Amino acid sequence: MTSELYLDLLKRVLTDTVYAVEPDLEHSTPSQFIGDFVGHYIRGRAVSMLPLVRFNNLHDCIRSVLKEEVPGDLIETGVWRGGATIFMRAALKAYGCTSRSVWVADSFEGLPEPDAEKYPLEAKAYHGVVQSKVMNHLAAGEDEVRRNFTNFGLLDDQVRFLKGWFKDTLPTAPIERLSILRLDGDHYESTMDALIALYSKVSPGGYVIVDDYGEKQWTYCQQAVDEFRTRLSITEPLRQVDSSCWFWRRSR
Predict the structure, then answer these.
(1) Is 35 inside any structural domain?
(2) Would you say the C-alpha torsion 236, 241, 245, 249 has a positive or negative sign?
């Protein structure tokens, strides 16, 4: 019970929803939502952009793999300020798990520039005012992320950093098995690079969570996932977390 109270409070601290209200996509106009999003996350105190419903999904997946002893570490590819990976480490600590690592994979320089000919929607968004001027391409430095881990008392030898573009770091990362693979690379190539390098390491019973699968106006993330699943004949059903985030559980 104490562990659950700690983790539930941590979610609200990471999302800055202890006293504030998170931006509401469902009941806002697009311009209102963008303004609320920038104010709450980019210029605010939140350590994660994940809404609470996505943290609850991550929490459920962690509880599941620990209870059922699904082998493997946990990773997020694309961490921003580190909120989701901080929660992963906190959950392992709260549940007394000392045998798994949390992998923090990011360029720590922001999003890579998309190929405008192959991915015009991504390129347009990348060079748009919101991403380039307001969000600084979602760049958060490794020092900032490490400092955030330290502030929560969670930076230790169970936290492993992978700095660089996914195409360079993930294929050779010393990861043996994964129980949770959380993808938040936003773009087609970042999503595909992570799937190609890491999906084979996901244990049966492990989870694959795709943060931007439902986004279609500015990214080809869904196309990358669908192509990969078709290529490998993955038939496990995709389940919806909210309008953007979807996941599936590997069965074989």
Answers:
(1) no
(2) negative
Residue % of the chain over a pLDDT of 70: 100
d(C-alpha 108, C-alpha 2), whole Å: 34
Q: What is the mean pLDDT of residues 113-132?
A: 94
Give tens-digit pLDDT for 204-244: 999 999 999 999 999 999 999 999 999 999 999 999 999 99
- Domain boundaries, position 161: 50-249
The two structure tokens encoding residue 126: 């990348």
Residue 44 belongs to a domain: no
Q: Which residues pair with 228 in a beta bridge?
A: none
Both tokens of 32, joined, read 């209102």
Query: How far apart are the C-alpha atoms of 229 and 101, rounded to whole Å?
Result: 26
Q: Is the pTM of this model over 0.70?
A: yes
Q: What is the CATH number of the domain that holds 55?
A: 3.40.50.150
Given a contact cutoff of 8 angstroms between Cβ atoms, the answer to whether 109 and 78 are in contact is: no
Report d(CA 245, CA 242) in Å as an integer: 5
User: How many separate domains does the chain show?
Assistant: 1
The strand order across the sheet containing 178-183 reads: 159-163, 102-106, 73-77, 178-183, 202-210, 246-249, 239-240
